[in-house]
Amino acid sequence: MTATTRYPEFGCYALPGHISDPTAAIDEIKDAERLGFGSIWISERFAAKNADVLSGAAAMLSPSMGIASGLIQNMPLRHPIVTAGYAATMAKLTGDRFALGVGRGTDSFADASGTPRLTFRIMEDYITILRQLWRGEAVNYEGPLGTIKGLRLGVDLPVVPPVICAGMGEKTLKWAGRVADGVVFNSLWTPAAVEASAKLVRQGAEEAGRDPASVRIWTILVTACDVPEEAMLRYVVRRMNTYILFPGMFDAICDANGWDKGEAVRLREALAKFDTARPAGTMGDESTTRDLDQLRQMAALYPKEWIEDGNAVGTGEDGARAALARLKAGADGVLFHGSAPAEMEGVLKAWRTLRPADLPTLPVNPGL
Description:
The protein has 368 residues and is an alpha/beta fold. It has helices at 24-35, 51-61, 80-94, 107-113, 120-134, 170-179, 191-207, 229-244, 247-257, 261-274, 292-301, 304-310, 316-328, 345-354, and strands at residues 7-14, 37-42, 66-69, 98-102, 139-143, 146-151, 163-167, 182-185, 216-225, 312-314, 333-338. It has a single domain (7-226, 311-354), classed as TIM Barrel. Helix 6 (170-179) crosses helix 7 and helix 7 runs parallel beside helix 13 (316-328). The two termini are 28 Å apart.
């Protein structure tokens, strides 16, 4: 299948989840380009998925897709000048197809690495400094990120790279609408959660005097369509298990979706019985079970609607309809996780039939 149409409303991840061999990204980026995805997103795990390196690979392998870091972890690990240089280099390398996606990371990794836990103040200061550097300004700053005196990036950027922030929870969503160029919702967002969350983002933008439509909204959709059961267990159930390990995060997912948090407690207790012999991890997904029989048992414990409403499972048409429901709910784009791009051919084939004729024309850059 060779793409004759590109779908800017669809992005996909290279190397979704925990991996040990980053060379698989080469074929995944090529496949995404070939199949017509609008953008490729580079998630980060420090063991073998350095976002800076893989972003450069994506720039060389894809002549037309947008590229986004999705998302760089624990921002204080990088001095703002380092992140500014990364994004500026990517902007130059791609002809402004690059968007910088940033996330909160995890408190456990912040504590383990001796860096500050992320706060709204730190995130906003960091983003402000990036934009000053990209505009060619001298930065003078005193605050939780340290002391900066007369720092310049020293590059001419006609277009400032857009910044995409993760958002979940009313306060964070409104903040992102006020500050960010784009927002990405977490995995497991049902269409109802997408609708409610999109309204909060637009409200935050409007209250800040911004055009609400100027904030591009993405929602992650973990997808396991037209794949064997083993793949569904790895892509969907194991990912849900990794979120269960972080009670604050999963409680926010439950709040957004209207799910019973008591069920989450029960599931966390069940998962703990499988994970007792495993060392604790700092990134969330290294330590929890990969055993297929145990994943199968966990799948049976999850409420069926959590798996079916929060993810895309079944046939390619099921996946395309799940994406359409999220676009109708207010997302501008769907960011596919779980399945590799080559496994998405059935979804894209169905999308060609289901795709609304009145979808807006979106920029190649996923943050604009």
